[in-house]
C-alpha cells in the first residue's frame, strides 16, 4: 500500500492484493474492498471491478491450481 496527499483536500492510495491457492484445481476468488470515503475515483486498476455501493468495489480473480493472482489499484479521494 502507498499513500500520497495531493493537497489539503485530496489523497491517493495504491494497493497490491495477492491471492494464493493451495488447491489442485483453478478457483475464482472475489475480493471485496471497502473504500474509506464516499467521494472516490479509481484512477488505475490492473483488473476490471464492479461498484457494489458508494464505499465498496469487487474484483473477481481467477487463480490457477496451486498458483497466485494479484490485483493492483489506485484510488483517489476528494472531499
Explain what you see.
The structure is a single chain. This protein is mostly beta strands. Helix content is 0%, strand content 63%. The strands form 2 sheets. It has a 4-stranded antiparallel beta sheet with strand order 1-2-7-4, with no helix packed on it. A 3-stranded antiparallel beta sheet has the order 3-6-5, with no helix packed on it. A hairpin with a 2-residue loop joins strand 5 (50-53) and strand 6 (56-63). It is elongated, with a radius of gyration of 14 Å. The mean pLDDT is 91.
Brief description of this entry?
0% of the residues lie in helices and 63% in strands.
SSE diagram, text form:
Elements: E1 2-5, E2 11-20, E3 27-34, E4 40-45, E5 50-53, E6 56-63, E7 68-77
Antiparallel strand pairs: 1-2, 2-7, 3-6, 4-7, 5-6
Key structural traits:
single chain; 79 residues; mainly beta; 0% helix; elongated
Global shape = elongated
Helix % is under 10%
Largest sheet: 4 strands, antiparallel
Low-confidence parts: none
Q: Could you say which structural class the secondary elements and strand pairing correspond to? A: mainly beta
Order of H and E elements:
EEEEEEE
Amino acid at each position: 500500500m502507498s499513500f500520497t496527499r495531493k493537497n489539503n483536500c485530496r489523497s491517493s492510495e495504491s494497493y497490491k492484493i495477492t491471492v494464493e491457492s493451495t488447491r489442485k484445481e483453478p478457483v475464482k476468488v472475489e475480493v471485496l474492498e471497502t473504500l474509506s470515503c464516499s467521494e472516490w475515483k479509481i484512477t488505475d486498476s490492473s483488473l476490471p471491478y464492479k461498484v457494489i455501493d458508494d464505499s465498496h468495489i469487487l474484483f473477481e480473480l481467477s487463480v490457477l491450481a496451486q498458483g497466485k493472482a494479484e490485483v493492483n489499484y489506485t484510488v483517489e479521494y476528494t472531499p
